[in-house]
């Protein structure tokens, strides 16, 4: 069989990162970093998939860093991206950050009902604190 020289592009990287969404953040984040090393611009799908991998891997700090990197790349976050970041922070017990992200999301008029469920669960410890 002949050797074929295939150079990865934004689509192949995004697909690989998306395959890591089940919590393989240790694979997803280096793939995202290598995109810029290859002079490829990560897109919204690349970032969202990596953030989702961080959420499922309980890596809230890394999820927030990737969200910040996404904003610095002038890419707008959508409800999927915010929901993943909110979910990561909720799993990490970061209710204040959950509320902040929810507020930011609502300010840019992204949210309908989907992220509200995540946020309500994330706010439960705050409600218990104020109720006692």
TrEMBL record:
InterPro entries: PPR_rpt, TPR-like_helical_dom_sf. This is Uncharacterized protein. The lineage of its organism: Eukaryota, Sar, Alveolata, Dinophyceae, Suessiales. It comes from Polarella glacialis (Dinoflagellate). Keywords: Repeat. It comes from the Eukaryota.
């Amino acid at each position: 069989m002949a050797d074929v020289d295939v150079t990865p592009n934004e689509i192949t990287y995004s697909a690989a990162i998306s395959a890591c969404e089940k919590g393989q953040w240790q694979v997803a984040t280096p793939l995202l970093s290598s995109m810029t090393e290859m002079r490829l611009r990560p897109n919204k799908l690349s970032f969202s998939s990596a953030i989702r991998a961080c959420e499922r891997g309980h890596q809230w700090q890394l999820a927030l860093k990737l969200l910040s990197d996404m904003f610095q790349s002038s890419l707008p976050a959508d409800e999927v991206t915010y929901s993943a970041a909110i979910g990561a922070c909720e799993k990490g017990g970061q209710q204040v950050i959950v509320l902040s992200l929810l507020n930011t999301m609502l300010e840019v008029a992204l949210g309908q009902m989907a992220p509200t469920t995540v946020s309500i669960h994330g706010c439960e410890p705050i409600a218990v604190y104020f109720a006692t």
